[in-house]
Amino acid sequence: MTPVRKVEGRAYPLGAANVDTDVIIAADHLKTVSRSRLGAYAFETIRRVDGNVFDDPAHSGSPILIAGDNFGCGSSREHAVWAMMDMGINAVIAPSFSDIFSGNAFKNGMVAVVLPQTAIDRLMKVAETDPITIDLETMTVTTPFQDRFDFALDPFRRDCLIHGTDEISLTLASDAAIAAHEARAVTLSVPVGEVAAR
Questions:
Q1: pTM for this one?
Q2: Burial 84-101 (b: 16+ CB within 10 A, else e)
Q3: Distance linking the first and last C-alpha atoms of the chain
Q4: What percent helix, strand, coil does the chain show, rounded to 5?
Q5: Mean pLDDT of the chain
Q6: How far is CA 186 from CA 135, 178, 179, 181, 183, in A?
C-alpha cells in the first residue's frame, strides 16, 4: 500500500447524500478481481447527466471527492473503492460514511475524512475554484483561504495510512513470532493415536 501523508489538489464537489455503492459502481462491473480499468465505470449514472461534476474539465483528475451524509451506503463492495482510486480519487470528505465503505477505504489506502456539514458546505464552495489539502500528520483539512478544519481518525488507521501498512504487511512483520508459535504447536501436539488410546 502506498503511504499517504497528504492528499492535495482540486476536489469534485459532489455533495450528494446517501450515494450508495451501486451508484459508485454498478453490479454489472463486479465480475473482475482486477483493480485496474474500473474507473471508467465509476459514477456511471451521474455521468449520464449533462454538466455533471465528474466530466467538468475544471475538476478532471481531482484526488478528492466531497460528498454528503452516509457516503458509500448499500451493499459491501470493495470494487467501489477500487473504481474511485482508479479514476484518481484518493480521499473522500463527508459528514459520515457507511461502516463497510469506511473499512474498505482504509484497507485500500483511501482516506475517509469526517467533517460536519458546515465544513462540507464551505469546502464545496472552495472546490469550485481552488485546491484543498488533507494532512494526516496535522489531522487537518485546509484551503488557500485560511480555512482549517480538524478531523479525527482512529490512531491505528492513521498510522497504517501514513506508513503504507496493510493487513498483509502487518502479518509479515510478525513472521518470526508466527513461525515460533507454529513450531511450538507442532512440538506440543499429541499424535492422534495417543489421544484415542487415552
A1: 0.86
A2: bbbbbbbbbbbbbbbebb
A3: 50
A4: 45, 15, 40
A5: 90
A6: 47, 12, 11, 9, 5
